[in-house]
């Protein structure tokens, strides 16, 4: 996964310090990921929801 702007995460965490640990745990997992589809992502983040216009991968 490509994280476009880490600075946005840093800014958010500066305003909401209690979010630092969960956000940067997500960041580290996501940065190292090699998900090929939504099912792969769900293995890492079981509570993730598929949103957007292309839910079926078409």
Can you put this structure into words, describing what you see?
The protein has a domain at 1-34. It has 58 residues and is mostly helical. Helices cover 52% and strands 0% of the residues.
Number of helices: 3
Coarse shape: elongated
In total, the number of strands is 0
Distance between the termini: 19 Å
Q: Helix/strand/pairing class, anyone?
A: mainly alpha
Rounded to the nearest angstrom, the radius of gyration is 13 Å
Beta-strand residue fraction: under 5%
- Which sequence of SSEs, written as H and E, runs from N to C? HHH
Can you tell me the residue ranges where pLDDT is under 50 for at least 5 consecutive residues?
none
**Portion of residues in helices?**
40-55%
Biggest sheet descriptor: none
Short structural description:
With 58 residues, the protein is mainly alpha-helical.
Helix/strand layout:
Layout: H1 6-15, H2 20-32, H3 38-44
What attributes characterize this protein structure?
58 residues, mainly alpha, elongated, 3 helices
